[in-house]
Amino acid sequence: MFLCYTRKKEKHISANEFRVNSGIRVAEVRLIGPDGDNIGVVPIKKALEIARDADLDLVEVSPNADPPVCRVMDFGKFVYERAKKEREAKKAQTKIEMKEIRLRPKTNEHHRGFKVRDARRWLEDGMKVKVTIRFRGREMDYPEIALEDLKEIAHELSDISTVEQAPELEGRKMHILLTPSKGGGTKKEKTQQPEDKKQTKADAKKKDEKQQPEEKKPAKADSKAKK
After folding, report:
1. Predicted structure pTM score
2. What ranges in 21-131 are assigned the alpha helix state H?
3. C or N terminus of the chain, fewer CB within 10 Å?
4. Which residues span the domain enclosing 60?
């Protein structure tokens, strides 16, 4: 006869599942005082007295320990701060949306250009982009063509993305996964440079126009002297 033992996974304890004050039904506990000091193992009655004298609550923070660990604290404040941390943790877990463009090994440059522009727009918006090339018929005999196309697309978008997953062949598809790079502000800096150059050229023209009349005046004076 064989016995099968299953190991229970440790569950995340919510604030409502903590045992507090008279709800702690054990003979003794390992007590942590209101200042965080380790008081040691004391009877439950002694622990409750210490909590009452401090006008605080006795909270069982580690029920699986032997003996259970209890702490003297403000339980209402503890619940509020714990709920606040859980909300902040959920906000930090931002979901990154993934888009996909689909091509064929014989896709022409014009049509591929439209697809690559879509991918660039999505990457600039913070989305991941999966580029998939599908094979039909005997196109499977030439996977190097699709591999070269994927590498070219990754190179075209290398200024705003990085390769998260290298080109991979799965069945009759080959795909690559691109993720937005951290330096997304380089594009704006590049677009500002031509405007600065235009301004400098315009300023130079204005200076030349101002200087030209001043140079012509002495020439007129010389012509009158000759007469």
Report:
1. 0.42
2. 44-53, 75-92, 109-124
3. N
4. 15-79
